[in-house]
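Section 3.1: Structural characterization of target chains.
Under the original work plan, the team committed to producing a structural model for every single-chain target entering the pipeline before any wet-lab resources were allocated. The record below documents one such target. The sequence was received from the expression subgroup and is listed exactly as submitted; it comprises 192 residues.
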Amino acid sequence: MDARSVTLLREILASTGWIERTREFGLALRATRSPGGLLVVGTPQEEPWHLTAHLSDEARLSGLPQLAPTLVRWAPAPDAPAHLRVGLERIEQAGRGETLFVVTEEQAPELLLERVSDARKVGATILALDGGDPELEGLAHDALAIPDRAPLSFDGAQHLISMAAGETGRRPGLRDRLARLLERVSGPQVPY
């Protein structure tokens, strides 16, 4: 999906609330303090290569080096290039100022949940993009679930999030976030 397709997707979803939610989630990825501190991991069956590549592009194009992701793999080949040899032990080294971004449409394996829990205990920020995994979402500081009935696909959500992460516009302040929260709780303001 190219930038024009993502823009079209944004226009189609403009009235659904999904754009705001994916934008907030994309901005949360920017909280990582250093290049390589954004750890992206999936499951043994589905590694988030595509999302990692998009985040890498966004880091380069937006001048936001903290978005430069590290793909964490379940079984990296020992002769793979260095950036493709990062295994699960990297999650054990995660700490404060780093972000562990778990991307899985399926239920997270128990081993991954244990590592996520350990990373959270030592101060890493945990984000999850999932298909509705209550255990994973319970460990995450912020989670975005894409249910089967959502008006966008899991792949579409990844594109919206990566594009939002690279946007260099003004980050919403406390007042903006409180206003959005109030609107979510009370509903939109209707003129009389």
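The chain has a mean pLDDT of 85.
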